[in-house]
Write a structure and sequence with these properties.
Elements (H helix, E strand, L loop, with lengths): L3 H20 L4 H12 L18 H40 L18 H15 L3 E2 L5 E3 H4 L24 E3 L5 H8 L5 E10 L10 E11 L4 H16 L5 E8 L2 E10 L16 E10 L1 H6 L8 E8 H9 L12 H4 L5
Parallel strand pairs: 1-4
Antiparallel strand pairs: 2-3, 4-5, 5-9, 6-7, 7-8, 8-9
Helix pairs in contact: 1-3, 2-3, 4-7, 4-9
The structure holds 3,4-dihydroxyphenylalanine.
3,4-dihydroxyphenylalanine (DAH) binds next to strand 8 and strand 9.
Length: 347
Amino acid sequence: MADLNELTEKLSAIKAEVTEGLKALASSKEAFEYRKSLMDSKTGKIGTLMREMGKIPNELKAEYGKKVNEIKTWAQGEFDALETKLKEKEMMARYESEKIDVTLPAKMRPKGNLHPNTQVKNQIVDIFGSMGFDVYEGTEIETDYYNFTALNIPDNHPARDMQDTFYLSPEFLLRTQTSAGQIHVMEEGKLPIKVISPGKVFRSDDDATHSPMFSQMEGLVVDKGITLCDLQGMLNVFVEKIFGEGTTTRLRPSYFPFTEPSVEVDVSCFQCKGKGCKLCKGTGWIEVLGAGVVNKKVLEDCHIDSNVYSGIAFGIGIERIAMLKYGINNIKLLFESDLRVLDQLDD
Ligand code: DAH
């Protein structure tokens, strides 16, 4: 390169080429690659300029170096500015593509809930638990003795016909009532007693309000001076908590071999508040459970001195409570596991 004019021309050509080249760059990656290729000290159009210094006469060297540096600085500046612009554009594009539309309805995930029978059972356990009751879980297979005889229902007693029993053998059966658990608890001999006993029971019975398998919650309190008033007081707490404030009970005379006196317990209609509606068949009252004062014979057979101790007992049908609470008129709905039904029954 003989003189600076030639160099100036060359640099102008490079500058023009780079200016055009910059326009074609669409991404920061392309800009980075292009810059690298231009500045490469062996092959790059700008990078190699310094190596040509050798061919320059000494008196022109300073001027040459200055011009080469100028174009280098110019190019760096152009690339820096372009790269900043492209990076920003790319960032905005990324933000745009990753944007979350918070107005879109969320994906609904199905939510599971406890079976209504379990919910009601848990609620009853909680209510009596808060009154100091322990939980005793009996067995579903019982002997004839615990299910009947010890409950003052001897062989050939007409009360056996009140419940159609599934016998497994002359001695063993599927319990027809959780009352069988009362005997086990009393036989343990620890007094006083205050237990509830939830569990499945079985009877050969099948219609809209009866199922061959259903659940009960037995209650038993044995202590000194226990009376029917204690029973009603506890049941009043129970019905208020399960059916709502203001619900109360009334006792009607009834018959169970293992209680004397025996009562049928009605709750005031929580739907019409006693005015009379379809649910309470216009009476203002709904029958919910059987109860009574533990028969002295039952206490004595369990070696409890009936002159010192007395007891009260009650048997609640869990499905019956669930049906009343949730307005279900067919017990089968509680056993068919139809999610369209069960999804609606969540407290
Ligand atoms: N075991 C009775 C039944 O299944 C219900 C019952 C009535 C239980 C009176 C009791 C009671 O503890 O005192 O029909």
